[in-house]
Amino acid sequence: MKMDKSFNNISNELNIEAYVYTRVCDMITDQCKDVVRNLKRRPTFFESLKTSQTLSNIKDIVKFDDAKINIGGGYDSTTGIFTVPWNGIYIFSCTIMGNAGGAVHFQLNKNDQLYTAGFVAKSNYGAQTVNSFAEFRTGDKVYVKHRSSASESVRESHFSTFSGYLLSK
């Protein structure tokens, strides 16, 4: 009788441990699936310029018009603005090539403030790339803007690009 009770106690403890183990495994599996799902939908965009763009005003925004990747739909090619969908650390990269050997003064803006400046000197096929890491909040705006009052032209045919990626939350 005493042995049956001990056996039942051990059996119950093993059942409880097996249940807890199974639940922990299920929770870990669910968390792994969430991580993979989040990676697949992590805000990412890569845009290029199909057609040249003349910037004649210091307020002009470069409107990259060919979406190669726009996961999360944060980049709007009609405005040239990326709206940050999630808080986190992002990396942005912009390459500008001057059209017909001309100079281009440009800057990467974060919420209407200069974040990184770039300059393409007058030369055949002159280009410059600026890269920036920054912490952003949901709703922040990022875009490439002209920073000169002189009229300047940005080269088309996918020589000029703008991209961004959520690095970490």
From TrEMBL:
Domain C1q: 38-169
Alphabetically ordered keywords of this record: Secreted, Signal
Any one GO CC term of the record: extracellular region
Cellular location(s): Secreted
Membrane-crossing segments per the record: none
The organism's place on the tree of life at top rank: Eukaryota
Gene3D superfamilies, sorted: 2.60.120.40
Name recorded for this polypeptide: C1QL
Organism this protein belongs to: Mytilus coruscus
